[in-house]
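Lab notebook, bench 4. The sequencing result for the construct came back, and we need a structural model before the next group meeting so we can plan mutations. Quick request posted to the team channel:

Model the 3D structure of this chain.
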Amino acid sequence: MEDSYEKNLVSSVPGARHPPGDLRLPVAHDRLASSAQAMYGLWRRVDLAKIAIFASSLYLFVLAITLMKDGARGVAPLVRDVFSVASAANSLGFGWLFSYTIMSGSPVAAAALTFYDAGVVDKLGAFAMITGSRLGANFIVLLLGFLYVLRGQDRATSLSMGLLSLTVTATTYLPGLLLGALFLQTGLLDGLQLGSGALLHSAADLAVNPVAGLVTALLPEWGVFLAGLGVILLSFSLFDRCLPTMTIRESHVGRLSRLVYRPAIMFLLGALVTLISMSVSLSLSILVPLSNRGFVRRENVIPYIMGANITTFIDTLLAAVLLRNPPAFTVVFVEMFSISVISLAILAMVYRPYQRGTLHFVNWITARNRNLAIFLAAIVAIPVILVLA
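Done. Here's the predicted structure in token form:
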């Protein structure tokens, strides 16, 4: 019956001279052509310039870590004597102020690891300095809000995202600092370390050692460290440029409007955006224009900030691996783990009271100029006091 059916099928096709199996050839050809067109369209969308910028930023990041590692001992007298970084409190304030100075937290976190690797600070000092770097990094979101105010935007709306970022970061990182210090002192997480990665190191050494050797030969140790700091700032700047340009359109955001009311979704979204951008300043700064255009509300972004504050440590983990110092990796992992525990505990158990208290505090700051001045004075005075303590 099958043979009879195939013969009838061939006879039903005008001019058919081939076996019925050949009828599939035009379909296969169309599919192949569609696939080729899709691949060509994808290739046309690939921005080779951004790929080159990304490769350059990655190379500069590895080079910067190498330079900062080689020059860390040269700045030891400055850190120990001038800034008196001798305790965890000093390290916390130093990392906080350092981030204010360069308007970024990731380079300061990387510097903390190189200081630890060189013996400038101990394990707890490096941990506290990384915490301080993240507290200071959120200031850029508040600064962006001030710029929007100068452009005539509503003050409360523009400043709220920066104030929320600082408040949420402080109320999760400071308890995380205490929890992490407990882990470090008891050694509960010391066994969780990442292998050095011989292939990664051999490739990195081959690529950066000639340039690093030249810089080391030309500059004193402290100059090598400063050169590395400048290179890592350039690296993050280039990485920001290779990210795709985002246009904020109501049609795009409207599809996700229902998701912003779910804390778990916003938590994962903040973690994902920061993981991709490798910059908590960038992932949090986009909240300012979104808030001014009414796409997100203050009460919905608290879980987003929590998620962003966790995955922001990915670049610091990479820096720890490049240093070939397993305890340095443990320091970063403990930081990341501690913040995760505190944030998830808040979301699971006390989120609504925490949300109300945080928003009430932000509303109090923006209600009067006096309150705002007190807050700004406090976030400058506290790290100074910690350094001098």
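Residues 46-388 form one domain.
Will bring this to the meeting.
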